[in-house]
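Lab manual, section 2.4: Encoding a predicted structure.

Procedure: take the sequence of the chain (150 residues), apply the prediction step described in section 2.3, and record the output as structure tokens. A sample record is shown.
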Amino acid sequence: MRTFDLAPLYRATVGFDRMADLLDRVMTQDMGASTYPPYNIEKTGDDAYRITLAVAGFTDQELNVEQRETELVVAARKGETDGEDRRYLHRGIATRAFEKRFQLADHVRVTGAVHENGLLHVDLVREVPESLKPRRIEIASNSGRTAIEA
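Recorded output:
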């Protein structure tokens, strides 16, 4: 596997620390990273997204969805089994604990989460503040003024 040194990027840029950290984190991640649970990411509107995770076997109380600044963390931990002693002949439904992390862009926030039919839907929306949106600047006319007045 190739390794990349991002030190020149840190030395030659100002204010891009988060982007460089994200690139560094993605490139150093283990290629055999866990694919459990399976998930989809879909775009549901111009500034709306939905992450759907397959969480069969977990209850609402065993699932945790948390937004930490620009990171979404979805975790699940199976509760105690009330002393039930089951013998499985085949166990194909994985209910092992997991923690899945998603990096969110600036101004993206979680608007809600719904757990239904073994799927956890997490809805996201990007809300760019008015101060960061493009705005039209009126150009004042300089007619009637001389160069000395201007």
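Check your result against the sample. Residues 1-33 form one domain.
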